[in-house]
Each structure stands twice: as structure tokens, then as C-alpha cells.
Design goal:
Layout lengths: L5 H14 L11 H7 L5 E11 L2 E12 L9 E8 L8 H15 L4 E6 L4 H9 L3 E11 L9 E10 L4
Parallel strand pairs: 3-4
Antiparallel strand pairs: 1-2, 2-3, 4-6, 5-6
Length: 167
């Protein structure tokens, strides 16, 4: 993923946010904030080279990770975000992205990839578990939604993790 992908990545992110089932964030950040928060060596996009938008391949989805802590002892622990354009749901895009990300993470010395998923987002829970994540906890009333169909409600978040096989 590069800055050139950002307009379409942002659009896919915004579509996910609008559902009220993907994040507590009310809107995507600007590129500078996104770029600073996500590890550049572990950011991927899935593109459809058959269709073009703005002269580039159409972004079907994206995946990226953020460090969970600045402490050196947690350098191998990251949190993943994965978003798929609604037009690409059910086509294996999310699984392809997560699998590629996990391969990248394994090669990059990351030993734990975690995800926070709303329990109601059963498709995301199923996707993560299908590639080796397991539910390790439930954080009750972690945050209050400020947008979307669930605005004003407190949300629980499932904590899922995937540990590298040799650890």
C-alpha cells in the first residue's frame, strides 16, 4: 500500500465505518495520520486490475497493522485492521489479505497479531478464525458509538489473536 492507493483505501475504510460494525472511529484519518500509525512493511491492498478508478487499479480491500505498544518488549505484537469493499464481499478478498499479512508478519518477526472485532460482526469473526485467530476475551462496553446505526450505544469488542506457529 502506498500513498497513491490512499484515496481508494480511504473510501473502502469509510464504507466500513458507515456500517457501524467495523470500528468506533467516526471517520478515516488523513493519509499522514494513517501512514504514521501503520507499519509500512505490513500494509497490503487487493486490487482488481480489470477495472480502473482514477487511472489506477481498483482497490477491493486493504489490511494493515499497528504496533500495540512502544515498549521494545512488545515489538512483535501488532493489531490488524482489514476492510473489504462491499462489492467484493464473499469473493475471498479478506481471507487473501489476512493470509498475506500473516505471512508478512511471520517473516517480519511478529509473533502475535491481534484484532478487535464487534461480536455482532460475525463475518469478521469467522474470517479471522478461518485463518488461525482465536477469541481470547471479550471487552465489555469498551466504547460508545458516535456514528452509524448504533450511535449512542456502548459496544463490546472481542479480542482475537493469532500467534506465530513456532512461538
Amino acid at each position: 500500500m502506498t500513498a497513491a492507493h490512499w484515496p481508494e483505501v480511504r473510501d473502502v475504510y469509510a464504507l466500513g465505518i458507515a456500517t457501524g460494525e467495523s470500528t468506533l472511529e467516526p471517520e478515516p484519518p488523513d493519509w499522514e495520520r494513517f501512514d504514521a500509525a501503520k507499519l509500512p512493511e505490513h500494509r497490503l491492498v487487493a486490487v482488481d486490475d480489470a477495472g480502473t478508478l482514477r487511472g489506477t487499479d481498483r482497490v477491493l480491500g486493504w489490511v494493515a497493522v499497528s504496533p500495540t505498544s512502544e515498549r521494545a518488549v512488545y515489538a512483535g505484537v501488532v493489531e490488524v485492521s482489514v476492510y473489504v469493499h462491499p462489492d467484493a464481499h464473499g469473493r475471498g478478498v479478506g481471507r487473501t489479505l489476512l493470509t498475506a499479512l500473516l505471512d508478512s508478519a511471520d517473516r517480519g518477526g511478529i509473533w502475535t497479531v491481534q484484532a478487535g472485532v464487534f461480536p455482532e460482526n460475525t463475518a469478521s469473526v469467522a474470517l479471522h478464525t478461518s485463518v488461525g485467530f482465536r477469541v481470547v476475551g471479550r471487552r465489555e462496553r469498551l466504547g460508545r458509538m458516535t456514528h452509524g446505526p448504533r450511535a449512542g450505544t456502548w459496544r463490546d469488542v472481542l479480542l482475537l489473536e493469532r500467534r506465530r506457529a513456532d512461538d
